[in-house]
Design goal:
Layout lengths: L2 H22 L14 H9 L6 E3 L2 E3 L6 E3 L2 H9 L6 E4 L23 H5 L5 E4 L5 H9 L3 E4 L6 H16 L5 H16 L7 E5 L6 E2 L5 H6 L3 E3 L5 E4 L1 H7 L9 H5 L23 E2 L3 E7 L19 E7 L1 H8 L5 H22 L1
Parallel strand pairs: 3-4, 3-5, 5-6, 7-9, 7-12, 10-11, 12-13
Antiparallel strand pairs: 1-2, 8-10
Helix pairs in contact: 6-7, 11-12
């Protein structure tokens, strides 16, 4: 190799060494490795959720309830639907769905519970949809059981909340949405498919003293999805002729009841005549055109007398609902889909036949 080339190679080597030393001087000696980020442990500490204690409505349940007493039929069915039947140790006397509940001990009803018997059963939790007397709550609580009174169910939205409450009773703070999702979807689908044209203006009687349910009850508000409930609040609504016989107008005075009978919305009676009573002031008059719905147990109200008349005159359609269908309204769960199917088939067909006969 020529001497000149050797010098060039030597110079390149020297320059390379100088460059390496220069850049290495920029790195601090003994640089520590990057620390491990313990995000997982921090996040776990901040977001860890334990099932219990759990705040449910107005009480705190400290530990998972494994021995539960349910007093209300609808609530007992919902607990079973959510997979909690194996935790039930006793039920109210009307809790019969599913049928397996009939094998459990009964402890009175939601309205009249046997508090002493409940207190002797070492339950963790007692649940009711109806209020319980304060003295009974005290006695049951002294036995170590929590007492939970759920919120009233007056609408489908309230029923959805009842499912969510029941799920939290079983799972506490760790309840998963997929537990209640199928049931809530069923109720949502029911809401979408309701048909308000079936009943028209209607009255639903619950006793033979002419008491009808208003929109202030679940039955009244739910049926309002299939027509128009003439009763805003639960109360009495009588045929106009019967009202006039029961509360005859003063001599020479036209009956307020007769005037109100012309109204299509069952307006309240003013009760201005001298012969009316304070009771009469709260009684409504049946519109001349409407649908009267009767439970099977009150079907006799449509019977005609010897002259061929019954209580209901005018253009009135009478619908009799079987007891098993009525029970679906009295104990609302997702079984309301069965009621929906019934009213869209049987009742709609009956209305069609009645119109054809006219």
């Amino acid at each position: 190799m020529p001497f000149k080339n050797r010098i060039s190679v030597f110079i390149c080597i020297i320059l390379s060494i100088i460059t390496m030393l220069t850049f290495s001087a920029c790195e601090p000696i003994g640089k520590p490795e990057p620390p491990e980020i313990t995000v997982t442990s921090v996040l776990t500490a901040e977001t860890e959720i334990t099932p219990f204690p759990a705040e449910i409505l107005n009480i705190t349940i400290e530990t998972e309830p494994k021995k539960i007493i349910v007093l209300s039929p609808a609530l007992a069915q919902i607990i079973c639907e959510l997979g909690g039947e194996d935790r039930l140790i006793a039920v109210g006397e009307y809790c019969d769905n599913p049928e397996s509940l009939t094998s459990l001990p009964t402890v009175g009803s939601a309205v009249n519970p046997d508090a002493e018997k409940i207190a002797s059963m070492d339950a963790d939790l007692v649940i009711s949809q109806s209020p319980i007397a304060k003295k009974d709550i005290t006695l049951i609580s002294q036995s170590g059981a929590n007492v939970l009174i759920t919120d009233p169910v007056l609408t489908l939205a309230d029923l959805k909340k009842l499912y969510e409450t029941a799920a939290k009773v079983l799972c506490g703070n760790t309840v998963q949405s997929d537990l209640t999702a199928p049931f809530l979807k069923t109720l949502d689908d029911l809401t979408v498919n309701l048909d308000k044209t079936i009943l028209g203006d209607f009255i639903y009687y619950v006793s033979d003293d002419y008491t009808a349910v208003g929109k202030d009850s679940f039955i009244g508000s739910f049926l309002d999805n299939y027509g128009t409930n003439t009763m805003k609040t639960t109360g009495k609504i009588m045929p106009g002729w019967l009202y006039n016989e029961t509360y005859p107008p003063a001599s020479g005075t036209e009956s307020e009841g007769t005037e109100a009978a012309d109204g299509a919305d069952g307006a309240e009676i003013a009760g201005d005549s001298e012969s009316t009573t304070s009771e009469a002031e709260t009684i409504n008059i049946i519109p001349e055109t409407c649908t009267v719905i009767l439970p099977e147990s009150l079907s006799f109200m449509q019977d005609k007398d010897e002259d061929g008349y019954n209580d209901f005159e005018g253009n009135i359609t009478i619908i009799i609902l079987p007891d098993d269908i009525i029970k679906l309204l009295e104990r609302p769960t997702t079984d309301l889909t069965r009621f929906d199917e019934y009213i869209k088939t049987e009742v709609r067909n009956q209305r069609t036949e009645d119109r054809a006969a006219e």
